[in-house]
Design brief:
By secondary structure, the protein is α+β, with helices and mostly antiparallel strands. The protein has nine helices and eleven strands. It has helices at 2-62, 68-81, 103-111, 142-191, 210-257, 264-291, 304-322, 341-357, 416-426; strands spanning 84-88, 94-97, 116-124, 127-136, 299-303, 325-329, 336-340, 364-371, 375-382, 430-436, 440-448. Strands 6-8-9-11-10 form a five-stranded mixed β-sheet, covered by helices on one side. It has a four-stranded antiparallel β-sheet with strand order 2-1-4-3, covered by helices on one side. Strands 5-7 form a two-stranded antiparallel sheet. β1 and β2 (94-97) form a beta hairpin. α6 (264-291) packs parallel to α9 and α7 (304-322) runs parallel beside α8 (341-357).
């Protein structure tokens, strides 16, 4: 797999590099030649204009166009600029012809394709002196042709050299990247083994791969945490089942051995242990349903004050029998929110039950309704024993109740807050716990207004 990725990466990098090289080579190879041709044309036109000016001034000074000075000038320009020049008189007769100045020049002309001719009238103060005829090839010749050919050869060598360097750099970069990918692959293989403590060193990765390394480390952290929770969940579940099952077993064996008679008191104790098992299974079933991402909520418009009144009515007798005060505080604006009535009551009921279990007699529990621009919330504040700060992050874990000992003489099975958290998250809301040891706990449940 890594080799396949490396090969593809090399091909992609080479393809990109070759496209850039090809475009650059094309622009240099053809565009420079075109611009150089324009430069040569401009200089040629300038030379022709200088010739015209020279011939006009010479005629004005000497009265003729056929002289050694004219022949020398024309010879120099024809040799330097590869021009074939003729000077004609008023009747069209040839006075000076650069083609016959040298035999070598004649042979050179036969080899050239003189495809362009320029005729310039020589006049001065409305007096016609003659005609300047210039023939030349539009193709680059002589030094100009040699210059452009040398330039093209250099471009070709530069393209070839750049191509080779691009291939080498592509191989190097792909090798660097795939080395880090191999490191990730090796780390993935270690996940299946006993060694899950190792982490990737993010700074050692290229900038583009650092997010991948960070995400992989986060995945390892999550897997490690889930593995820890799974083991703890299994141990806690086994403990919760072991106690009532052991009690039921001993009681049933007592009935079988004749130690116990099926009296009302004994049957009531047996029934209580059985109901403890039933409640555990019911709570686990509720937790599974609550944590299901496909949970279906029957959303409707709910009045926060009405829900508060139902809670007070539901728990008032139980609180009174325990010697606890239960006080509700409505919101004068009577805020409403969208939610599932049964699930909302289940969330708040689990929280109120926790407050009931951990608040001693002669204390009180207050339930307040509040609202802001985003949420409608409930505050359940008790005067119980409180929770240490180190335990707050674990409150919503299954079977967690604050006392980590196995001597559980009060409270439920430690699933209520886990169910509440799963259900409030299904409503896209949030739950916040604030507590101080010896002073009590405040649980805030927020339902979004526009959910």
């Amino acid at each position: 797999m890594i080799k396949s990725i490396r090969s593809r990466l090399i091909i992609v990098l080479m393809f990109i590099a070759l496209i850039g090289i090809g475009i650059t080579g094309f622009l240099i190879f053809f565009r420079v030649e075109h611009q150089f041709g324009e430069y040569v044309d401009t200089n040629r036109n300038k030379t022709i204009e200088e010739l015209r000016t020279f011939l006009v001034e010479h005629y004005q000074q000497t009265g003729n166009l056929d002289s050694n000075q004219v022949r020398s000038w024309l010879h120099q320009d024809s040799m330097t600029n590869d021009l074939f020049i003729q000077v004609l008189d008023q009747n069209g007769e040839v006075l000076v012809d650069s083609n016959h100045m040298q035999q070598m020049m004649n042979r050179h002309r036969q080899e050239l394709d003189l495809d362009q001719e320029v005729r310039v009238q020589l006049t001065s103060e409305n007096e016609e002196m003659g005609t300047l005829v210039v023939n030349y090839s539009t193709d680059l010749i002589g030094a100009d042709d040699e210059f452009i050919r040398n330039l093209q050869q250099q471009v070709i060598w530069a393209v070839l050299l750049t191509t080779v360097l691009s291939i080498l750099i592509s191989v190097f970069i792909s090798s660097r990247l795939t080395v880090k990918l191999k490191e990730i692959v090796q780390m993935v293989k270690q996940i299946r083994g006993p060694n899950k403590q190792s982490r990737l060193s993010v700074p050692n990765f290229e900038l583009e791969l650092q997010p991948l390394a960070e995400a992989f480390n986060d995945l390892l952290d999550t897997l490690e945490k889930e593995d820890h929770l799974r083991k703890r969940y299994t141990a806690d579940l086994a403990h919760e089942l072991r106690t009532p099952l052991a009690t039921l077993r001993s009681q049933i064996e007592a009935y079988q051995d004749g130690v116990w008679q099926p009296s009302d008191d004994h049957l009531a104790k047996t029934h209580a242990e059985l109901m403890r098992l039933v409640r555990l299974v019911d709570d686990l079933e509720q937790l599974i349903v609550a944590e299901n991402p496909q949970i279906q909520l029957r959303m409707e418009k709910l009045s926060a004050n009405d829900i508060l009144k139902r809670l007070i009515h539901q728990f008032q007798a139980s609180f009174y029998n325990k010697g606890l005060g239960l006080h509700g505080h409505t919101d004068p604006y009577n805020p409403t929110f969208s939610g599932d009535l049964d699930r909302s009551l289940q969330i708040l009921t689990n929280i109120v039950i926790n407050a009931y279990d951990y608040t001693p007699a002669k204390k009180r529990v207050d339930i307040c309704v509040f609202h802001n621009d985003q949420y409608v919330g409930f505050k359940v504040k008790d005067q119980g024993v409180g929770i240490e700060k180190s335990q707050l992050p674990h409150l919503f874990e299954r079977f967690y109740r604050g006392d980590l000992s196995r001597e559980r003489t009060s409270g439920g099975l430690g699933i209520g807050l886990a169910i509440a958290k799963a259900l409030i998250e299904a409503h896209k809301g949030k739950i916040i716990v604030q507590s101080e040891v010896g002073k009590g706990t405040c649980v805030v449940v927020c339902f979004p207004i526009n959910q």
